[in-house]
Design goal:
The protein is mostly helical and about 100 residues long. Helices cover about 60% and strands about 10% of the residues. The chain has one domain. Helix 1 packs across helix 2.
Length: about 100
């Protein structure tokens, strides 16, 4: 019998503009239990959004909206992964300038 908590895939992200690879955390950390919890939260969010907008949607339209939310979240986080090193470098440079100017 197959253990359902063992990872079946590993997610790797390639940020091509930066030419670097980002490995995700240990895939065994996100097991089926956590996936079900995340799905339930996302499902409730999308259902609440549909209710707030007073939309009547089919199952197919619901799943399309669900996937759209997932993709937008992924895109947002990919942008953050791409920009975070630049933000950190800029912050460090500003902090160094402040110290040189007699700041804190």
């Amino acid at each position: 019998m197959q253990d359902i908590d063992k990872p079946r895939f590993k997610l790797e992200l390639t940020l091509s503009e930066m030419g670097r690879r980002v490995d995700t955390s240990d895939p065994t950390l996100i097991n089926e239990k956590f996936i079900k919890q995340a799905w339930n939260m996302m499902n409730a969010f999308v259902m609440d959004m549909i209710d707030d907008l007073k939309l009547e949607v089919t199952d197919e339209e619901f799943r399309t909206m669900f996937i759209e939310v997932c993709y937008k979240l992924i895109y947002r986080e990919m942008c953050t992964l791409r920009l975070l090193p630049h933000w950190e470098r800029n912050f460090a440079e500003r902090l160094a300038r402040k110290k040189q100017e007699g700041g804190e």
